[in-house]
Every structure is written in C-alpha cells, then in structure tokens.
Design goal:
With 347 residues, the protein is an alpha/beta fold. It has helices at residues 4-10, 25-34, 41-52, 68-71, 81-87, 118-127, 149-168, 187-207, 234-248, 265-282, 294-304, 311-328, and strands at 17-21, 61-66, 91-95, 100-103, 106-112, 132-139, 172-179, 216-219, 255-258, 288-292. The strands form two sheets. Strands 1-2-3-6-7-8-9-10 form an eight-stranded parallel beta barrel, surrounded by seven helices. The chain has a two-stranded antiparallel sheet with strand order 4-5. Strand 4 (100-103) and strand 5 form a beta hairpin.
C-alpha cells in the first residue's frame, strides 16, 4: 500500500521546493511566444528538457509537476522524464485538472473542469510514474461583488472530490487555491478572500473525508492587486499571509507551498523569505516551501530563446534562481542580504 503521508512529507526537505512545469499546450505556447519562440510539440519538449535536464536541480527541487504530454516524453538523454527525475530523487507530479471555464451562474468567474474521467486518468498517471497530483482553482476579486459564495463552494467541492479520488488512486493531492493577482483591490481584501476561500475548501475536504495528513496546500501570498498602485513590502506580505493561514488552515496537513502568481522572480523570492521568517517567528505548525513556475523559468527563457547555443547559459540562470529561492526557504537573512540557514524541521 502506498504511504501517501511519507510521500507528502518527502516533498518538504532541506529547503527544497516544487517546480511547476505543468503548463498546458495553450499556456506553454503563450509562454514561449512571450520570448519570441515559435511553438510545436518538439519545441515544447525542448522547453521541458531545458529545465528537467539541468544538472544539479536535485539540490533544490523535491518534485516537479508535469503536464500529461510531458509524462510520456523523453529528454535529450533518451530517458523518460519521470525516470530521469526518479533517478535524481525528484518526485514526478501531474496536473490533472483540465483547465477553467466561465461559471454559468456567474460568467465573470472561472470554474475548474476535469472530474468526469478523473479516476481512469489517475490510474494511468500512477502507472506512468507520477507520485503526486495537482488541481487548480482560482478566485477572482472584483470589489465586494466577487468572488461569489456560489463559485467558491463549487470550486471547493471539485477540489475535494479530486483530492479524494487522488488519494484513492495512491497519489498525493496538491489542492491549489489561487486568488488572482489581477485587479485594483488592496491587500486587506486579498487577505479576506484567501481566508474565505481556504475556510470553504477545508470544510469541503472534511465533508468528503479527505485525509488531511497527505494533503498539500498550494496557495497565493496575500498581495495587493497589481493595478492597485500599492507596492507591498515583504514584511507586510509575510505578516498578512501567515495571519490568514493560521486562522483557517488545519495543523494536520502535510505542508504548504506558495505559488508566485504573477510576481517577478525577485519579488517572489523576497516575499517567500519574509514569509518563512515570519512563520518561524510565530511558530507555524506546517512546513512551508515554494511551487513556482514563471518565477523560476522566465530568466532562463529570456536567455534561451529556443536556441541550442543558449542552453548552457539559460541553465546557469535557472540554477542561480533556484538557489536563491531555495535559500529563501531557509529564512535567515545576514547583513549582506544573503539568506542562509537550516530549513525548519517539523514533526
């Protein structure tokens, strides 16, 4: 029998985090286009190999979330990506939701789809080497009108159903509850929505009898909307984020990873460091880490530009950012602003 608790805990070791390399075909195409790279199935494979094939990532990553096509592909070393990762002690995860669509009852909000054939897909993903899964739900803030209670409950119900099915298939579920960075709202409004959405989510997980001990929460930091004109300090972000999480997140879950959610690489790194420092200061009951996509990839992509001659330099940039984010998890800032210490150990 698969020990899901052990797998979940293994993703929180020694300052390591999770790379979200699970962009859909549509999102990957857009991401590459931003850097002037034309797309195709082969270019997407090279895009994945740029990061997965980098030597030394095992020093900073405990897991990588893949997209379904990537789970079946091979790197330039002719090995399946999942097997290449396993050989380096990195767990392969898989995005299992099928994206978002407008919510019929509130068309300005998004609802996540993918439950219909989920049990069958989970069986195949496990056979293909996946050890954990991820399902993303998003909340849109629009004044005091959105998010609606109906959309929050529907997304939470689907997250809970997914998590139950994932555990039944022997796979650790990451439940991602993202409060979108878009908008003019202030940090106080974000904090209220984070609290409300997570309170509904954990209530629904309890209703569906999901085992909390093998659940990982992926959540947003508490930030002012990108169009608010407010630049939050890392200390403000940290205080509000930890306060919100302590209020609504059960202590029994396996851990929490943060998404970068539109932040710049430096912003995501600095805010993570402040959050982990605040967590140590107040004594949070769960381990904390990162699960970034764009914040880890963008610098490397801007160098790579889809060209073989740029691979080495792009990988150096990727490793450099990984190291910075990894040491941010260790949460001790020295006088020269170098962050270095020991990752907190939680029983």
């Amino acid at each position: 029998m698969t020990d899901l608790v052990a797998i979940a805990r293994s993703l929180f070791v020694d300052g390591k985090g999770i790379l979200a390399a699970d962009e859909s075909v549509h999102t990957a195409t857009e991401r590459l286009a931003e850097h002037g790279i034309s797309t195709s199935a082969e270019m997407r494979r090279q895009y994945r190999d740029l990061f997965i094939g980098t030597k030394g990532i095992e020093d900073y990553l405990s897991g990588i979330i893949l997209f379904s096509e990537t789970l079946l592909e091979k790197g330039n070393d002719k090995k399946l990506f999942s097997k290449s990762l396993a050989a380096r002690g990195i767990a392969a995860g898989i995005k299992v939701d099928l994206g978002t669509e407008p919510f019929p009852e509130s068309p300005r909000e998004l609802i996540t789809q993918g439950l219909l054939d989920l049990p069958e897909r989970l069986v195949e993903y496990k056979k293909q080497g996946a050890e954990f899964t991820k399902w993303r739900a998003v909340a849109t803030i629009e004044g005091d009108r959105l998010p609606s209670n109906t959309a929050l409950h529907e997304n939470a119900k689907r997250l809970a159903s997914y998590a139950k099915e994932s555990q039944a298939a022997g796979l650790v579920p990451i439940v991602e509850s993202e409060v979108l960075y878009e908008g003019k709202h202030g940090r106080a409004r974000t904090k209220a929505v984070v609290e409300e959405s997570l309170e509904v989510l954990f209530s629904m997980l309890n209703e569906y009898a999901v085992d909390r001990a093998s659940v990982i929460l992926k959540t947003s930091m508490v930030l002012s909307g990108e169009k608010s004109g407010k630049k939050d300090t890392p200390e403000e972000v940290a205080e509000d984020t930890i306060s919100a999480l302590l209020k609504v997140v059960p202590k029994q879950i396996a851990g929490i990873v943060f998404l970068s959610g539109g932040q710049t690489p430096d912003q995501a790194t600095e805010n993570l460091a402040a959050i982990v420092q605040q967590a140590k200061k107040v004594g949070t009951p769960w381990p904390l880490s990162f699960s970034y996509a764009r914040a880890l990839q963008d610098e490397a992509l801007s160098i790579w530009k889809g060209k073989e001659e740029n691979v080495s330099a792009a990988r150096e940039a990727f490793l450099s950012r990984l190291e910075k984010v990894s040491v941010a998890c260790k949460a001790k800032v020295l006088a020269d602003n170098c962050i270095i210490s020991t990752f907190p150990v939680y029983s």
